[in-house]
């Protein structure tokens, strides 16, 4: 098979028919030997019904129905694991990324001789708060991680099968797919694309913080190293302060009074201790979740013609 097109469905019913028509037309400009894999990520609307109707009238369509909502990243990984094409095109089905970009990505992949051509936004969409928090995420992640991410990275990408086969070998339960894209390696080339904006982001501030913490702790041990050095620095300052007090007491017979400063110090050290324990706890929880070896998705039914 020459080409696999993978997309996920979650509240996708308003866009799915149009997405199918446009991506099918674009795929046939490249090859007649292709497949369209629709992964239903427990969508509450009638996305699955529409997907099944597409499957019934087009043998190129395959539908993976997950048993519940597992999340966008895990649904994408499930679709990629079942892609058989020599090239695999990953794209969201909400039409924010135009299906017609497939041809542009295909030309760029042949020209660059890369294993991956991935989409990036020239300017980040959204209001001022969303742009600032997005920039902070990439700067913080790249500062703490050994696997830097391009700023304003998008889902849309065209990949070779050998890259996809290596990508799906990762079996993390706490999946941050952008990090896995970087960790997998191979030659990757960016392509600037225009992103249509169809409404407010589904990621509220609390969810963005959760994703940031999860991403950093999944791909970097530097917070743990930071705790060690912070402990060394605090211990050094405390030792110097203690020596200073002893010298003042022995040689100058002076006992410094400082009840407020003592209370502040206790609260400061208590807060730092709880913070450090929290960071360690996050890493321990990840170990706990990974050792369970649970599947990151469960397929209820796979609609595929034999």
Characteristics:
alpha/beta; 306 residues; 10 helices; 2 domains; elongated; 51% helix
Describe the fold and architecture:
With 306 residues, this protein is an alpha/beta fold. It folds into 2 domains: 3-219 and 296-303, Spore Coat Polysaccharide Biosynthesis Protein SpsA, Chain A, CATH 3.90.550; 222-291. Helix content is 51%, strand content 16%. It has 10 helices and 8 strands. It has an 8-stranded mixed beta sheet with strand order 7-5-6-4-1-2-3-8, sandwiched between helices. Strand 1, helix 1 (16-28) and strand 2 form a beta-alpha-beta unit. Helix 5 packs parallel to helix 8. It is elongated and about 95 Å long.
Helix tally?
A: 10
Overall radius of gyration: 25 Å
H-E string = EHEHEHEHEHEHHEHHHE
Instruction: Please give the alpha-carbon distance between the first and last residues.
Output: 14 Å
Helix content: 40-55%
Helix-strand makeup class: alpha/beta
CATH superfamily (homologous) name of the largest domain: Spore Coat Polysaccharide Biosynthesis Protein SpsA, Chain A
- Amount of beta strand: 15-25%
What's the CATH class label of the largest domain?
Answer: Alpha Beta
Record the strand order, biggest sheet.
7-5-6-4-1-2-3-8
Whole-number count of domains: 2
Unreliable spans: none
